[in-house]
Queue: 2 jobs
Job 1
Amino acid sequence: MTEEIQDPDLTADEKQLLEELMAEDGSGLSEFGLQRRHFLSQLIGAGGALLAFQLLGDQSAFAHSIGAELEAYPPEHIVNGVTVSFKVNGQSKSLEVDSRMTLLDTLRERLQLTGSKKGCDHGQCGACTVMVDGRRVLSCLTLAASCEGKAVQTIEGFAKAGKLHPLQAAFIKHDGFQCGFCTPGQICSGIALINEVKKGEASYVTADIRTMGQLPQLSDDEIKERMSGNICRCGAYPNIVAAIREVLSGKGVAQHWLLTPEHSVQVVNNIEGNPKES
Ligand code: FES
Ligand code: FES
């Protein structure tokens, strides 16, 4: 039985959630994917969701009334102002921006869509990746004024009706992130990659471009090459590749939990994350 938590600073709801988190023996959490996912789902319920949902862009949790926020964050010191009208995650927006303002700063500073991250601001890390008219772009190198009449999609726009995009769900299943800073850009890039492959677009390492039209599968080398513009300082690369491979193939990909040699576990799940019958 779990001891009652006495901390007077906790609300009743927080106490209850913490008790639920403590109710399960956590010794196997890092060794077995199912327990870990259960832990993660509880953590999300307990407020870790604030981080996870921002990283993964759950629109229901962070639904923005962008128009209202434009009022709340009026521009200051605009020089050479230009009015730009475009769609952001399906919503039509029209706002005045400095002609030198990047799309990244416009999204973050003016529209309060802070999922896209500023890693380097020099086009080198991919953390700011968004999609413009269905193509991935580095928003730190894209002027907002150049997006006139275009459709911009950010990480906040991929979850629909409270349901994560399959690649977002696969990132959770495969532990495709640690600190999560690169994750919005990785997911935007991964979704664009999947669309590019479905359209038959080749990469520098495609061995035979004649196969692209009929090739829904990609080798890990292909995925790595196509994701090479997105840097992850935490080194979650193998799990990012696994998540993309799973969504691309539509088949479950084994999860690898590599800890100490005696605790290394491989769990083969179906694509929904349930244990595969053997
Ligand atoms: Fe745009 Fe690094 S912030 S590439
Ligand atoms: Fe930390 Fe990629 S998860 S930088």
Job 2
Amino acid sequence: MLNIAIDGPAGAGKSTIAKAVSKKLGIVYLDTGAMYRGAAYAALKRGLDVNDASQIEPFLSGLEMSIECGDVQQIIVNGENVTPFIREHKISKAASDISKLPAVRLKLVELQREIAGRTACVLDGRDIGSYVLPDAEYKFFVTASPEERANRRFKELREKGSDLTYEEILADIKDRDYNDSHRAFAPLVQVADARLIDTTALTVDEAVGAVLRIIEGEK
Ligand code: DC
């Protein structure tokens, strides 16, 4: 099965690139971050502490998650479509926190491997090339400077009416980078066989083109 892994820090452009590449190749896009966000949202809704394994582990045994891939991927958690709620600002940090717990990762990675095993797809995340699918046919590590990522997020959130400042967003991005790359189990890391795409000075089209040239050049 054709699997393309796109890993990298928050706000580097992974999902934009992954969506465009999946469309161009006519395969599915799987946003694995949305799965951690869905789990975090459901845990917070139950009033649980996303940093506390003793609260999250029992919650996981009753957690049913299903994914409907499509133009806008839908995440259904325990029968509720949580898609509209998982992009809220507070869910970003909660997803990063809950994703540190090995039991959470094991459960969601199982679902990711199951989908990738039966569907040609582009997956974006933090540990796809290093842990979820170490044999993925293509691996990319997409990054950009923290300042550029904060700048993009700032503009995006502004358009949605958020009043967070650039400084607050930059601090959150740095905090999440630290959290995601310093956890003990399957941290964010650039593996040796991943191609580096630094989007700091690239337009979306240039970044997508760089990825497609590598894939099409090697077909
Ligand atoms: O890509 P994102 O911002 O939607 O991801 C939210 C959080 O989920 C991220 O900060 C860390 C976690 N995550 C992860 O640990 N592993 C993945 N494969 C994807 C996301």
